[in-house]
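Go through this one:
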Amino acid sequence: MSILQLPKRALSWLRRAMLRVVLASRAGRVVASLGVAAIILVAAGAGLWAWNDQRAGDIRGSADEEFVATETPEIEVSVDQPVAEPSSPQPPVSTQPAVEAESPVGAPVEETVRAPLVVVPEPEPPSLRWPTWGLGPSRTRVVPDEFSLKPPFREVWRLRGKSLIEFPPAIADGQLFVGTNKGRFIAADTESGDINWEVEFGRCIAASPAVDSGLVYVALMDPWPCRDHDESAPGYIVALDVATGEERWRFASGVTETSPLVVDGTLYFGAWDRNVYALDAESGEKLWSYETGGQVKGAVAWRKGIVYSGSYDGRMYALDAGTGELKWAASGRSGLFSSGRFYSTPALAYGRVYVGNVDGRVYAFGADSGEVIWSRTTGGFVYSSPAVFDETVYVGSYDGNLYAFDAVSGDTRWAFPAGDAISGSPTVMGGLVYFSTFGRKTFAVDATTGERVWTFDDGEYTPLVTDGKRAYIVGLARVYALEPIDANEDGAGAEDQDE
């Protein structure tokens, strides 16, 4: 931090002290003024150190500070209704009067013509749509109970990405949509894993797609191999037809790795050119943009007509979703000797904004005010985006722990030592928290106790999405479709789906 970035009170105090030194030196009291200057600088340093210590310390929150217990994230559910199969034609039923026949004793009887018995199959239950990163606009990654699955699982199929898959798929209309680091974008059948279509963009993809109204939206970075990023290169949001992969429109921005969000016909995303954008989702026309003070890498979240986005300038922004007008901008508590940057995507619940920061902290801001309600320090960078469930905030850290923080106060409920850095984001399903580590392993731990329940021998970033029929686990370069099994059922692996 430069001296120009010090708090106003500290700058004012230093200016007054320096003025006294100048006036003293002009009066000829040079030696004395040097002594005064030394005392002033020592005092200023001590004061700034105390300010920094207070500034960088954690804050404990309370239920009296912008906490709305009824504003839960579990309400955002959309489903794919199954399409009814056409039934086989049935023999016509006679409408002629019954024919009289003679009984053995000569008594007339009526012959009844009966329609054949038709067996109506049980309709398939609707499947959960997972149309965007984090499941819904609040980005909380909580699977509704009626669509939750529990381990143990058996593998049904696997899809090879051929390169790193950093972000999980979107699921809609019986298809799974996923992008790879080399720019390969795939639409696969959720039942079989067969590839329906794919597009080679030649640009890195480090975001989940979004699906809405027959289009799938893909965020594109700079051209592969993306090792030394060209920050001046353009990035794009591309809209593709979900059925064919045909490109409908393309919008040029800065390099973008933010997972798009579509709400009420408007698409929101951020880019390295420092802007948060709002586009018409159907046409790709720009509606507005807002320039922050740094690169925007995390995704945008939405609540009650406000979009929330973090920036690499260390600030969280709240913008009017319709106009882009700034509602508030707030920074964390990094202090003088560290630089707080927001890569993490905010999760919105209980009237608060929960988000991680590379300063190693997790923050809760008031969604309406922007005030820091609580902050909690971990032992490493927090690139992970929180999942929020049952008044608990779940988030991973580079210190190798998955944390469960009280959503009200920020107190630590438990921490699970996974053994390797956690960069991706957890998902809560069926009372379990699923997450992956840089040790190429996926864990499921009890959401209440933090005890390990299940592991899977692949994973790297954000591991899990579901449609309520299968759990889709994201490995380093594969997607695995898993179904629940009985404990004594064979869970042997399936063949790769690649051609």
Observations:
- Residues 30-56 form the longest helix (27 residues).
- The two ends are 52 Å apart (CA to CA).
- Helices lie at 8-26, 30-56.
- The longest strand covers residues 153-160.
